[in-house]
């Protein structure tokens, strides 16, 4: 009998990509093979995001577009996983009656059960936030690339930034025990993984719930000693919780890549306070200065929200001036999207969508210019690159990533996929770089 096939689409942040590794692992264990064709799938799963309204609307239209296929093939199962599933739970099924199974980010282990039930009865979609780690094993995940893995070190979030839905869908912060993380990563390295990205909504809070002080940098120091592991990245840092001492200690670790994603969100102190971010503009700028002193090769990126309720023109200008002052290599930029159930959704002064969009367009223009200029400054430099796979644009070329997370394209044979190479940068667009391989085999 041919294997059953699944098609998995992942939206949202790296947390969801890490969860996708586990979902793939479970489905592989059940004998499913992966496909990218809707027509040949027996199970179509969406791993969803609900951080902004737009993300939800996109998912709803994607599922509705499958109506005809589902009518033609009644045996086809449709599933919704991830944050949107957690947010809406049972009501998702009345919104999307085509769906057969629903499970949240902390219920991935129930997938075999849900699949079995879905074959016999309609889904109820009811579940609770469980939080915590479920003893995920390195051999229970399937990696997109065999040399690179996402590793969750802290689940959930207890920050309650006023605009953000994540704490209510992902539950409170729960750190994974250091021994468990080390064992997990050692197993991955044994399987050929050379690069890991440690994940958490606030990695700097790692270990706090376990009673550890500076738990995050202590974990980095222990991972640094793991033979065979080459690069360690991490996401996301919270500017309030990244201490100067932690930066000084991690600056000494050569496996830790010089990539700092430090979401600032806004440049005005009044807006930062309304957002409940727990730091000021001055604190953030001092932190950036400290990072750049301790790690001169540091590349900085950020997240920004414009058009927060009651944000004045002058306050928005403060975001622009911060962006100009820091000169981020890249930024994820959004206009504010009200999320029901969050504190900010009840704040007075919601700006018209047109105005929020207009501010976003200006912000993007300013940041894109800076990103382009920063990219040009890399031309002529030789950078270490992990070659990840064939370039879709240029036959005969491979695409890779630098230590700072930059995409680099260069002519190279497929045999070099998964290796670290020196590449001289010849050309720069705003994000992707093109170069020449300096270490041919
Ligand atoms: N934990 C990270 C942090 O604190 O920066 C990121 C979490 S969130 C999943 C990713 C980004 O989405 C946030 O940094 C923020 O810029 C954006 N975001 C979250 N809620 C939003 C909202 N209601 N409207 C617009 N953007 C939002
Ligand atoms: Fe959301 Fe704030 Fe938590 Fe990030 S730190 S996930 S923005 S509540
Ligand atoms: Fe979205 Fe959930 Fe991440 S809401 S941004 S996928 S934590």
Quick description:
With 441 residues, the protein is α/β, with parallel strands linked by helices. It has helices at 14-29, 53-64, 67-72, 83-88, 91-95, 111-120, 166-170, 178-190, 215-224, 244-250, 269-274, 281-294, 313-326, 353-376, and strands at residues 5-10, 33-34, 43-48, 77-82, 101-103, 148-152, 154-155, 174-175, 195-199, 231-235, 259-261, 299-306, 330-335, 382-390, 397-402, 407-411, 420-428, 433-437.
Please explain how this structure is put together:
Helix 9 (215-224) runs parallel beside helix 10 (244-250). Among the domains are: 5-118, Methylthiotransferase, N-terminal domain (Rossmann fold, 3-Layer(aba) Sandwich); 131-257, Transcription Regulator spoIIAA (2-Layer Sandwich), CATH 3.30.750.210; 382-437, Beta Barrel (OB fold (Dihydrolipoamide Acetyltransferase, E2P)), CATH 2.40.50.140. It is built from 14 helices and 18 strands. It has 441 residues and is an alpha/beta fold. The chain has helices spanning 14-29, 53-64, 67-72, 83-88, 91-95, 111-120, 166-170, 178-190, 215-224, 244-250, 269-274, 281-294, 313-326, 353-376, and strands spanning 5-10, 33-34, 43-48, 77-82, 101-103, 148-152, 154-155, 174-175, 195-199, 231-235, 259-261, 299-306, 330-335, 382-390, 397-402, 407-411, 420-428, 433-437. The mean pLDDT is 94. The radius of gyration is 22 Å and the shape is globular. Strand 1 (5-10), helix 1 and strand 2 (33-34) form a beta-alpha-beta unit. Bound molecules: S-adenosylmethionine, iron/sulfur cluster and FE3-S4 cluster (F3S). Iron/sulfur cluster binds at residues 157, 159-161, 164, 166-167, 201-202, 238.
């Amino acid at each position: 009998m041919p294997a059953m096939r699944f098609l998995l689409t992942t939206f949202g942040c790296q947390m969801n990509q890490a969860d996708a590794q586990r979902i793939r692992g479970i489905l592989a264990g059940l004998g499913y093979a992966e496909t990218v064709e809707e027509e040949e799938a027996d199970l179509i799963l969406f791993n969803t995001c609900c951080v902004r309204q737009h993300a939800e609307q996109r998912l709803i239209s994607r599922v509705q577009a499958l109506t005809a296929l589902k009518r033609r093939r009644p045996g086809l199962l449709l599933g919704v996983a991830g944050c949107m599933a957690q947010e809406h739970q049972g009501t998702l099924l009345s919104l999307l009656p085509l769906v057969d199974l629903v499970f949240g980010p902390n219920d991935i282990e129930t997938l075999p059960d849900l699949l079995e039930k879905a074959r016999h009865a309609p889904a109820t979609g009811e579940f609770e936030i469980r939080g915590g780690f479920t003893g995920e094993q390195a051999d229970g995940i399937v990696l997109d690339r065999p040399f690179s893995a996402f590793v969750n070190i802290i689940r959930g979030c207890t920050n309650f930034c006023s605009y953000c839905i994540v704490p209510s869908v992902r539950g409170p912060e729960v750190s994974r025990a250091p021994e468990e993380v080390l064992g997990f990563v050692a197993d991955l390295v044994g399987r050929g993984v050379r690069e890991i990205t440690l994940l958490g909504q606030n990695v700097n809070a790692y270990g706090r719930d376990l009673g550890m002080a500076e738990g995050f940098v202590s974990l980095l120091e222990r991972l640094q000693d793991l033979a065979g592991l080459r690069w360690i990245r991490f996401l996301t840092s919270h500017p309030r919780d990244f201490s100067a001492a932690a930066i000084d200690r991690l600056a000494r670790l050569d496996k830790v890549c010089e990539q700092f994603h430090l979401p600032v969100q806004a440049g005005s102190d009044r807006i930062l306070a309304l957002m409940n971010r727990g730091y000021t503009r001055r604190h953030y700028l001092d932190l950036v200065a400290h990072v750049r002193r301790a790690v001169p090769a540091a590349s900085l990126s950020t997240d920004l929200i414009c058009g927060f309720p009651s944000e004045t023109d002058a306050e928005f200008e403060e975001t622009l001036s911060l962006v100009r002052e820091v000169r981020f290599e890249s930024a994820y930029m959004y206009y504010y999207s009200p999320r029901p159930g969050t504190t900010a959704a009840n704040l007075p002064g919601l700006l018209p969508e047109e105005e929020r969009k207009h501010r976003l367009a200006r912000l993007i223009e300013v940041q894109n210019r800076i990103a382009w200029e920063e990219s040009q400054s890399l031309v002529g430099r030789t950078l270490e690159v992990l070659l990840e796979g064939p370039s879709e644009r240029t036959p005969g070329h491979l695409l890779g990533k630098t230590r700072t997370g930059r995409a680099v394209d260069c002519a190279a044979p497929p045999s070099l996929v998964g290796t670290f190479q020196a590449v001289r940068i010849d050309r720069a667009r705003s994000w992707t770089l093109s170069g020449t391989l300096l270490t041919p085999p």
